């Protein structure tokens, strides 16, 4: 597609009419969403509306019961489990509410881990991890165990770990949910600015309007469906 003779990028990641149930609970009903490369998208909505389930489907963690997930021109939901996990390791990055760092390991080990799992050379993995820790002003903490970190520091380590593989998409599920609002805002601003520098797309599930305000666009999930908040405001 072109506008004024210039190519318009197609979506990088898309959910098309996705259904997903847990037993008898239908979490998603014909949920559709499309995200372009480099976009920072916030997914908001009431508790239990299906936000996390949608994020997990987009990231290839869950496969939909019906509907399609497209990533970079390919059907993600049709890939084998092994190919989807490889994609998650090499092309996607993840930041969760409680960081989910490995407490027995040091900060540097945690950041180097995705590279080591991808069979990078040890020296290179630790060099790259060190570069990210410096960028996030955490280099003094690199040999400490993650249990010694504050919530905000732990989330900065989680951001470094998510970015170390240079992912195309970062999936963040309530990344500031365990932080006070000021720390949460700083963590989100950091995530967005680093993602922009790296050209990564970010999809963030959040309850916090201030976190969503850092995004380029917001969508709402209600009763398992995606709605554009501005479109629904116009209808009201
Ligand atoms: N593992 C599970 N087993 C059974 N039901 C589940 C499971 N995970 C989610 N659900 C249900 O699916 C629906 C959607 O859940 P989901 O976690 O996607 O919503 P959410 O919008 O992310 O909620 P929250 O904001 O509270 O995290 C809810 O009714 C929830 O109770």
User: What oligomeric state best describes the polypeptide chains here?
Assistant: single chain
Proportion of beta-strand residues:
25-35%
Mass-distribution shape: globular
Helical residue percent?
Answer: 25-40%
Report low-confidence residues grouped into runs of 5 or more. 232-236
Task: Tell me the number of strands.
Answer: 12
Organism: Nonomuraea dietziae
Domain ABC transporter: 13-235
Pfam families: ABC_tran (PF00005)
GO molecular function: ATP binding; ATP hydrolysis activity; transmembrane transporter activity
Write the layout of secondary structure elements.
Layout: E1 2-3, E2 6-7, E3 11-22, E4 25-36, E5 40-44, H1 51-58, E6 66-71, E7 74-75, H2 81-90, E8 92-96, H3 107-117, H4 122-135, H5 151-163, E9 169-173, H6 181-198, E10 201-205, H7 209-212, E11 217-222, E12 225-227, H8 229-235
Parallel strand pairs: 5-10, 5-11, 8-9, 9-10
Antiparallel strand pairs: 1-2, 3-4, 3-6, 6-7, 11-12
The structure holds adenosine-5'-triphosphate.
Adenosine-5'-triphosphate (ATP) binds at residues 22, 25, 27, 45, 47-53.
Protein name: Putative ABC transport system ATP-binding protein
InterPro entries: AAA+_ATPase, ABC_transporter-like_ATP-bd, ABC_transporter-like_CS, ABC_transpr_LolD-like, MacB-like_ATP-bd, P-loop_NTPase
GO molecular function, one term: transmembrane transporter activity
Q: Explain this structure to me?
A:
- This protein is of the alpha/beta class and 236 residues long.
- Helices cover 36% and strands 28% of the residues.
- The protein has eight helices and twelve strands.
- The strands form three sheets. It has a six-stranded mixed β-sheet with strand order 8-9-10-5-11-12, with helices on both faces. The protein has a four-stranded antiparallel β-sheet with strand order 4-3-6-7, covered by helices on one side. The protein has a two-stranded antiparallel sheet with strand order 1-2.
- A hairpin with a 2-residue loop joins strand 6 (66-71) and strand 7.
- The longest helix has 18 residues, at 181-198.
- Residues 22, 25, 27, 45, 47-53 line the site of adenosine-5'-triphosphate.
- GO terms for molecular function: ATP binding; ATP hydrolysis activity; transmembrane transporter activity.
- InterPro entries: AAA+_ATPase, ABC_transporter-like_ATP-bd, ABC_transporter-like_CS, ABC_transpr_LolD-like, MacB-like_ATP-bd, P-loop_NTPase.
């Amino acid at each position: 597609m072109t506008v004024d003779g210039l190519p318009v990028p197609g979506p990088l990641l898309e959910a098309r009419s996705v259904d997903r149930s847990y037993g008898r609970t239908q979490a998603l009903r014909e949920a559709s969403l499309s995200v372009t490369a480099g976009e920072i998208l916030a997914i908001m909505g009431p508790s239990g509306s299906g936000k996390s389930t949608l994020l997990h489907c987009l990231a290839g963690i869950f496969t939909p019961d019906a509907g399609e997930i497209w990533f970079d021109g390919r059907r993600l939901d049709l890939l084998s489990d092994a190919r989807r996990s490889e994609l998650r390791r090499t092309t996607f990055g993840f930041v969760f509410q409680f960081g989910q760092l490995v407490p027995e390991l040091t900060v540097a080990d945690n950041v180097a881990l995705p590279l080591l799992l991808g069979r990078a050379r040890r020296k290179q993995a630790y060099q790259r991890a060190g570069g990210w820790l410096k960028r996030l002003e955490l280099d003094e903490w690199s040999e400490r165990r993650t249990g010694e970190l504050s919530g905000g520091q732990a989330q900065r380590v989680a951001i470094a770990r998510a970015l170390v593989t240079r992912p195309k998409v970062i999936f963040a599920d309530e990344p500031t949910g365990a932080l006070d609002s000021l720390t949460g805002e700083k963590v989100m601003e950091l995530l967005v600015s680093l993602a922009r520098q790296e050209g990564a797309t970010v999809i963030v599930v959040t309850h916090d309007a201030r976190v969503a305000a850092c995004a380029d666009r917001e969508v709402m999930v209600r009763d398992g469906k995606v709605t554009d908040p501005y479109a629904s405001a116009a209808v009201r």
